[in-house]
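Module 6 notes. Inverse folding takes a fixed backbone as the condition and produces residue identities as the prediction. Think of it as a translation problem where the source language is geometry and the target language is the twenty amino acids. Below is one complete input and output pair. Work through it position by position during the lab.
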C-alpha cells in the first residue's frame, strides 16, 4: 500500500550490546499489533534475531528492518547490532534514518558504543531519543544514568518520563509532558493503566518538569514519545540545521 512520504518515519534502534534493543524492538512490534505474541531473546523467538547464529549466540549480528503502523504513520524500525565487530550495520542504519533511539542499560549507564554512535548521529543531525532500559535490575538507577548522560552529551539531555519505583519494585512511569502516571499491569498489549501521580513522587516530577521547561515551549519539537505501552507520536525531522535536543525516557521493555 502506498504511504505518503510525510507519513513515514525511519527509526534506528542503536546502543551498546546487551542493552535490550532487540527486546525493545520486539515489545514495540507487539504493542503496535505487528506480531500477536511477544518473542524473547533467550528463547530465540524474536523477529529481528531470526538468523540461526543470532539465536545460538543470543545476540544480534546484522541489522533487521520491520515496519508497522502507529497513529496513522508507517514506522520503519531498524534493530541494529551493538557488538563493535558488527558496528557497520548500526552506522549504516543511522545513515538511512532521520531519527534514532539510543537504548541504555540503567545499571551500566553510558558505554563505549553509546558514545561512538551518538557522535555519528550528531554528525548526521538525527533526532535522538534515549531509552533507559533494564531498570528492573539490581543496582539500576535512572537518575544516576540521567546525570551520566548529561555529563556525556550536555545539559540539554532532559527527562520526559521518570520511573515509579526502582529495581525489582519498578512498577510504572510518570510522563512529565502530560503529567500523568502509568502503572504496568501485566504483559498483554495496552496493559499500562493510568493512575494518579504518587504523592511521594509529585515533588520530584514537578522539579524534573521545571528542569525540562523546553517541553512546554511552543518552539520545542513535536511531543516526545515513549517506548512504554501507551500511544504517542514520533519525532519528526526539523527543517532547520540546528542540533536537535536529546530526550531521555525511562521504561522497561519487559
Ligand atoms: N531484566 C531485564 N532484562 C532485559 C531487559 N531488556 C532485555 N533484557 C535481557 O537482556 C538480554 C539482552 O537483550 P537484547 O534485547 O538481546 O539486547 P541487545 O543486544 O541490545 O539487542 C536478553 O537476555 C534480554 O532478555 C530489561 O528491561 N530487564
Ligand atoms: Mg540485539
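Target side of the pair, the amino acids:
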Amino acid at each position: 500500500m502506498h504511504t505518503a512520504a510525510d507519513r513515514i518515519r525511519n527509526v534506528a534502534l542503536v546502543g551498546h550490546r546487551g542493552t535490550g534493543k532487540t527486546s525493545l524492538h520486539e515489545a514495540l512490534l507487539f504493542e503496535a499489533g505487528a506480531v500477536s505474541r511477544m518473542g524473547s531473546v533467550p528463547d530465540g523467538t524474536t523477529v529481528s534475531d531470526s538468523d540461526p547464529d543470532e539465536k545460538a549466540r543470543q545476540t544480534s549480528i546484522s541489522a533487521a528492518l520491520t515496519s508497522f503502523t502507529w497513529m496513522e504513520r508507517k514506522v520503519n524500525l531498524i534493530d541494529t547490532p551493538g557488538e563493535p565487530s558488527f558496528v557497520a550495520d548500526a552506522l549504516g542504519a543511522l545513515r538511512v534514518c532521520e531519527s534514532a533511539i539510543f537504548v541504555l542499560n540503567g545499571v551500566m549507564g553510558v558505554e563505549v558504543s553509546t558514545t561512538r554512535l551518538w557522535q555519528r548521529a550528531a554528525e548526521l543531525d538525527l533526532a535522538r531519543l534515549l531509552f533507559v532500559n533494564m531498570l528492573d535490575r539490581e543496582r539500576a538507577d535512572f537518575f544516576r544514568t540521567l546525570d551520566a548522560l548529561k555529563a556525556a552529551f550536555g545539559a540539554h539531555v532532559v527527562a520526559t518520563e521518570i520511573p515509579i519505583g526502582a529495581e525489582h519494585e519498578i512498577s510504572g512511569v510518570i510522563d512529565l509532558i502530560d503529567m500523568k502516571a502509568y502503572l504496568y499491569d501485566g504483559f498483554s498489549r495496552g496493559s499500562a493503566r493510568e493512575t494518579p501521580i504518587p504523592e511521594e513522587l509529585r515533588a520530584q516530577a514537578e522539579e524534573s518538569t521545571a528542569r525540562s521547561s523546553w517541553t512546554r515551549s511552543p518552539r520545542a519539537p513535536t511531543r516526545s514519545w515513549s517506548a512504554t505501552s501507551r500511544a504517542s507520536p514520533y519525532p519528526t525531522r526539523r527543517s532547520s540545521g540546528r542540533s536537535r535536543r536529546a530526550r531521555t525516557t525511562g521504561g522497561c521493555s519487559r
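Reference fact for the lab report: Residues 21-22, 59-60, 79 surround magnesium ion (ligand 2) (CB under 6 Å).
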